[in-house]
Backbone:
C-alpha cells in the first residue's frame, strides 16, 4: 500500500509566479554571454572553426574537417546549425554572431522543455499534495505550475550551467535534446503528438550531436520505466506498452543511424585509483550542480515511501532519477566530465523541485541566508574589481588584473554599466521582496539562488566582458603574430597547432593555412611548441629562420613560433 504523500500544500501556496517577470528573468539569463564577445578558447572557437569551414562548402558535410583534422566530438548537427546560420546571415552580421543565433534558440528550448517536463511530472497522481479534510488543498494544475516554476528557477540557479550553456559547442545541443527527451518522457502519458515529436527530435538530436550512447541509454531507461510502472486497468496498460514500444523503436532507429554514419566511438575513460582524481570529481559534483543536489537529496529522503513503496510507481521520482544516474555514469566514465554532467541538470532541477513542498521554514531560511551572503559577496567582488580598473581605487585589484592580463586596456562603456547597475538594483529589490512578502509561495526558496546566479552571470557579461574577452580570446595572440607576418601572405604552413589555434588564425588573421605535412611550399610557418618543428623533421635555419616567439597574454605557457623560409 502506498504511503501518503509528504507534500502538504494549501491553495494559497501555489500562487502563480508572474509570467512577464519569469520571461524577463529568463531573457536576462539567456542573452548575456551570446552577444558582444568573440569566440573563446578552446571548444567555443574550435566548433566555430568547423562551422566556418562547412559554410564555405569545400568539405564534406558528413565529415567536417578543420586544417585537415576531424572534430574531437563526432557530432554533425551543431556544425550544421552554425554553418547554415552563417550562410543565411545578412552581410552586416559577423560570422561568429550568426553562428550563435541557433544556440540562443537551443537554450530557450531547454528552459521551456525543463519547465514542461517538471510540470507533467507534478501532474502525476502520486506527486499530488495531501487532500485536506475540509478542502483548501492546492488544485493539481496550480500545484504542477508552481512546482514547474520552482524547477525552472532551480535549473537556472545551477552554477555549472552558465558558461557551457552560452558556448556554441555540441554540449549545448546535447543539453537541449536531453531536455526535450525528458519533457517527452514526462508528458507522453498526457499528450501524444507534441511529446512524440519531442522524443523523436531528442533522440535523433542526441545521436547527431555526438552522444549516441546517451541516446541509447536514455531511450532504454524511458522504455524500462514505462514497462515497469504499475497500471490500474487494461486500457492504461495497453497505452503504456504502446508508449514503451514507440520509444524503444525510436531508440533502435537512432542506433541504426549511428552505425550507418559511423558515430560510435569508444570514449570510456574510467577514473584511476588516484585520490586526487576522485577529489576533483567530487568537487565537480558539488559545485557544478549546486544548489540542486542538496534539494534533490532532500526529495529522495522525504519521498522515499513513494520511491520504494511500490515498484516504479513514483514516476515523478524515478524518471528524473534515471536521467541523473545515466548522466552521472557518463561523467565518471568519460574525459569530458563537466559536459557530461551538464546533461543531468534539467532532470536534477525537476527532482529538486519536489523538495519545495516539503521544506521546513528553518531549511528555507538557511537557503535564503546562504544565498544572500554568497551571491551578494560575489557581486560585490565583481563591482570592486571593475571600480578598481576604472579609478585605480582600491589599487590592488587593478594591479592583479595588470599582472594576469598584461596589455589589457580598460575603458568605460555606459550601456553595460547601466545594465549592471539596474540588475544590482533589481537584486536588492528581490531580497527586500523575498523577506517581506509571499512567504507562502511554493517556489520562494529558489528565487534568491536563481536571481543570484543570473545577477553574477549578467555582471560578468557586462562589467567584466572586455577583460574576459581579452583573456579567453585568441585575438591578442593573433594580432601579435600578424605584426610579424606580411600584410597578405600567399599561404602559411602550420605545424602542431591545435584545432582552436587554427580556427583563430583563420578567423582573426584571415590567413590561408596549409598543414605542413601536406608538403605545402609556403614562405611562412607557424609552429606550436618549442620542440615541435625539430621533432617533425624540420631543422630551424635549414631552411627556416625563427622570426618571433609569441605567447598568449593571459597564458604565458601557450606559445607559438613563427618561422620564415630562407630564400635560395
Residues:
Amino acid at each position: 500500500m502506498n504511503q501518503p504523500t509528504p507534500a502538504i500544500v494549501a491553495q494559497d501556496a501555489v500562487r502563480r509566479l508572474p509570467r512577464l517577470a519569469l520571461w524577463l528573468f529568463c531573457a536576462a539569463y539567456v542573452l548575456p554571454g551570446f552577444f558582444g564577445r568573440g569566440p573563446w578558447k578552446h571548444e567555443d572557437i574550435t566548433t566555430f572553426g568547423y562551422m566556418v569551414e562547412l559554410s564555405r562548402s569545400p568539405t564534406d558535410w558528413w565529415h567536417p574537417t578543420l586544417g585537415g583534422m576531424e572534430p574531437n566530438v563526432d557530432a554533425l548537427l551543431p556544425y550544421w546549425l552554425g554553418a547554415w546560420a552563417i550562410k543565411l546571415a545578412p552581410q552586416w552580421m559577423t560570422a561568429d554572431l550568426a553562428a550563435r543565433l541557433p544556440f540562443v534558440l537551443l537554450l530557450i528550448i531547454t528552459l521551456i522543455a525543463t519547465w514542461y517536463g517538471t510540470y507533467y511530472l507534478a501532474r502525476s497522481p502520486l506527486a499530488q499534495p495531501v487532500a485536506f479534510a475540509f478542502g483548501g488543498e492546492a488544485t493539481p494544475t496550480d500545484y504542477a505550475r508552481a512546482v514547474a516554476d520552482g524547477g525552472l528557477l532551480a535549473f537556472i540557479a545551477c552554477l555549472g550551467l552558465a558558461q557551457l550553456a552560452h558556448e556554441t559547442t555540441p554540449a549545448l545541443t546535447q543539453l537541449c535534446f536531453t531536455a526535450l527527451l525528458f519533457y517527452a518522457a514526462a508528458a507522453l502519458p498526457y499528450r501524444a503528438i507534441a511529446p512524440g515529436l519531442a522524443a523523436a527530435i531528442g533522440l535523433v538530436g542526441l545521436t547527431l550531436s555526438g552522444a549516441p550512447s546517451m541516446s541509447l541509454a536514455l531511450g532504454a531507461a524511458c522504455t524500462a520505466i514505462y514497462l515497469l510502472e504499475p497500471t490500474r486497468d487494461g486500457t492504461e496498460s495497453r497505452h503504456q506498452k504502446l508508449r514503451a514500444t514507440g520509444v524503444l523503436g525510436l531508440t533502435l532507429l537512432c542506433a541504426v543511424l549511428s552505425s550507418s554514419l559511423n558515430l560510435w566511438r569508444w570514449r570510456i575513460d574510467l577514473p584511476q585509483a588516484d585520490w586526487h582524481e576522485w577529489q576533483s570529481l567530487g568537487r565537480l559534483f558539488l559545485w557544478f550542480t549546486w544548489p540542486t543536489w542538496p534539494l534533490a537529496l532532500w526529495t529522495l529522503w522525504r519521498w522515499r515511501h513513494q520511491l520504494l513503496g511500490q515498484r516504479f510507481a513514483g514516476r515523478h521520482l524515478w524518471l528524473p532519477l534515471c536521467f541523473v544516474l545515466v548522466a552521472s555514469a557518463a561523467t565518471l566514465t568519460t574525459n569530458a566530465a563537466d559536459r557530461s554532467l551538464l546533461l543531468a541538470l534539467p532532470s536534477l532541477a525537476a527532482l529538486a523541485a519536489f523538495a519545495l513542498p516539503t521544506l521546513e521554514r528553518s531549511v528555507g531560511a538557511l537557503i535564503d541566508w546562504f544565498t544572500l551572503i554568497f551571491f551578494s559577496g560575489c557581486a560585490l567582488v565583481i563591482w570592486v574589481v571593475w571600480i578598481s580598473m576604472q579609478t585605480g581605487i582600491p589599487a590592488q585589484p587593478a594591479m592583479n588584473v595588470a599582472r594576469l592580463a598584461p596589455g589589457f586596456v580598460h575603458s568605460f562603456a555606459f550601456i553595460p554599466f547601466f545594465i549592471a547597475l539596474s540588475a544590482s538594483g533589481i537584486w536588492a529589490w528581490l531580497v527586500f521582496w523575498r523577506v517581506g512578502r509571499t512567504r507562502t509561495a511554493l517556489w520562494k526558496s529558489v528565487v534568491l539562488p536563481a536571481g543570484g546566479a543570473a545577477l553574477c552571470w549578467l555582471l560578468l557579461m557586462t562589467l567584466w566582458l572586455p577583460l574576459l574577452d581579452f583573456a579567453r580570446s585568441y585575438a591578442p595572440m593573433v594580432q601579435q603574430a600578424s605584426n610579424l607576418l606580411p600584410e597578405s601572405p600567399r599561404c602559411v604552413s602550420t605545424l602542431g597547432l591545435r584545432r582552436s589555434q587554427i580556427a583563430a588564425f583563420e578567423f582573426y588573421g584571415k590567413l590561408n593555412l596549409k598543414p605542413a605535412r601536406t608538403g605545402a611550399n609556403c614562405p611562412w610557418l607557424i609552429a606550436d611548441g618549442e620542440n615541435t618543428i625539430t621533432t617533425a623533421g624540420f631543422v630551424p635555419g635549414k631552411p627556416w629562420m625563427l622570426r618571433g616567439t609569441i605567447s598568449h597574454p593571459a597564458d604565458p605557457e601557450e606559445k607559438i613560433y613563427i618561422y620564415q623560409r630562407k630564400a635560395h
In short: The mean pLDDT is 88. Residues 280 and 286 are 10 Å apart (CA to CA). The longest strand covers residues 555-565. The radius of gyration is 26 Å.
